[in-house]
Task: structure prediction
Amino acid sequence: MNLRSLFNEHAKILQFNTAEILNELKLDALVIGAGEPQIYFEDDQDVPYRSNHHFRHWCPIEGPHHVLKIVPGQKPLLRLYKPADFWYDVKPLHQEFWMDAFQIEICDKVEDLWKNIGVGGLGRIAYQGPDRERATKQNLLVDVEGLLPRLNWNRVSKTAYEQECLVDATRIAAKGHIAAERAFRQGGSELDIHFAYLQATRSREIDLPYENIIALNEKSAFLHYAEKRDDIHNGRVLLIDAGANARGYASDISRTYATEDAPEEFRALLEDMTRMQKDICASIRLHVRMNDLHFNTHERIAELLVNHKILLGVDAQKAMSDGLTLPFFPHGLGHMLGIFVHDVAGRQINREGTIGENDPRFPKLRTLRPLEIGTIVTIEPGLYFIKMLLEPYRKGEFSKLFNWTLIERLMPCGGIRIEDNVVILKDQVRNVTREFLP
Ligand code: GLY
Ligand code: MN
Ligand code: MN
Result:
């Protein structure tokens, strides 16, 4: 199916789901605002702008101020802001693939976008977006109880159009990952690798769904390392966590590479982690719970730590029950992925918005729910040598089970994270990342 048909199908599903929500909440219509640009405190410079995620769900056009009104049984009304401007270039609209799904009105003044937007209901038109003041002035209802959780709930299962956005975001990111690996192997600094990524993806930083994590050597032990050092070259280990954006949807991909100069033990560990990550992806089945997958990943990591003699005199089961994997794998196995990199409703267990009980084993997991059809999640096991987390174990009751000599040898390598994006389908779990980065 081409993009236009995919999008029209997407819009139909959204229209159906929204009508259901409006009916449940006894509302006549829903208005969604794209949002307004922000400026830095007391400055005249704009903060990088992103439209309201609920708006993005409906329409891929970027830029502030647009307003969307959804009334059951009618084609949604989309008021687009296109000012006459000589300070900034305003991109012309051609026959965009998404246009058929809306009744479009072009406005060159922000006030016109909002004119009479509250007309047509019996005072039961809800608003979801950041421009609350304008919405209130138009008699729209802000903060309707139960609206946000329902909108978020419907976001978890991605339409075929949204899955295609992930595919495109992956295609772009894969080019960056290939170029980044090359720059690393040529001895580039973190900054060089970052520029190679941007160049290959034809992205500006502002286009990326999240800040690139590009860490050489020991810095790969910082989970969200954001520096880009320029003074360190010829790294032995690279951990790169970088994605791309397609029509407002993110990919979120991590790879770890080691050169011949990295300690042999680290390279062996990387090989086994790579195999393990692929095995986890292959083990995913419809309805499986992320916390169970996460628990199972800890079991696998326990085995790896024992097999690689990082833990000594203990078997994997005992290592697991004593919590010895925790300092090595301190984050979740994965999260929902979509418009947000850490997408909405991962902990929500029903459409009304109940947040699930945390698994007491892992109280910080972002994703509790079973993987239903259309869910997109990341699968990103990691294994790190983080001084801050290991130090208490050095002094603790299990200290003698840790091979501190080996751990110290591995600390300058930082850590490993391998992250793919998978789509849960009816009869298949599709690892989109491996289609582009096998
Ligand atoms: N890139 C952030 C994450 O993997 O969650
Ligand atoms: Mn991730
Ligand atoms: Mn990531």
User: Anything to note?
Assistant: The chain has two domains: 3-153, 160-436. The first strand starts at residue 29 and ends at 33. Residues 160-436 form a domain with the Creatine Amidinohydrolase fold (CATH 3.90.230.10).
